[in-house]
Design brief:
Mean pLDDT: 96
Order of helices and strands: HHHHH
Keywords: Membrane, Transmembrane, Transmembrane helix
Radius of gyration: 15 Å
InterPro entries: DUF1761
Number of helices: 5
Protein name: DUF1761 domain-containing protein
Helix content: over 70%
Number of strands: 0
Strand content: under 5%
Number of domains: 1
Low-confidence stretches: none
Distance between the termini: 14 Å
Length: about 130
């Protein structure tokens, strides 16, 4: 972790949080709630626990991805690795679970799309900010 730019990691985590607010808010809230079987009017726990936990997990993901990329990754490599990690590791893993759980393709596209963009953003930020 000594070679990791902690400010870039923090900004990457914030970018995931902002993306999530847009993605699961105005863009896909209704479709996601319908497909996930979630009542949008009933919170699933205390907001501080949910949002705080989500931010901590985003911070962990960004930090580990920064370690994976190494110090001063080339921009193209970092963005490509982010897209590949989001699509081929995270979304593909979700896809396996969703197949066994009988979840819809639409839900997988929403969740997998978010994580693909999340890690692509991580790559963009970590590739630009050395």
């Amino acid at each position: 972790m000594a070679n990791v730019n902690l400010w870039a990691v923090l900004v990457a985590a914030v970018s995931a949080f902002v993306l999530g607010g847009l993605w699961y808010g105005p863009l896909f809230k209704n479709a996601w709630c319908r497909e996930a079987g979630v009542d949008p009017d009933k919170p699933n726990g205390h907001p501080a626990r949910v949002f705080g936990g989500a931010f901590v997990l985003s911070l962990i993901a960004a930090a580990v991805f920064a370690v994976f990329l190494g110090p001063q990754p080339a921009l193209g490599f970092a963005v490509g690795a982010g897209a590949a990690a989001g699509l081929c590791w995270v979304a593909a893993s979700f896809g396996i679970n969703y197949l066994f759980a009988g979840r819809s393709l639409k839900l997988w596209l929403i969740d997998g799309g978010y994580h693909t963009l999340q890690f692509t953003l991580y790559g963009l930020i970590l590739g630009l900010w050395h």
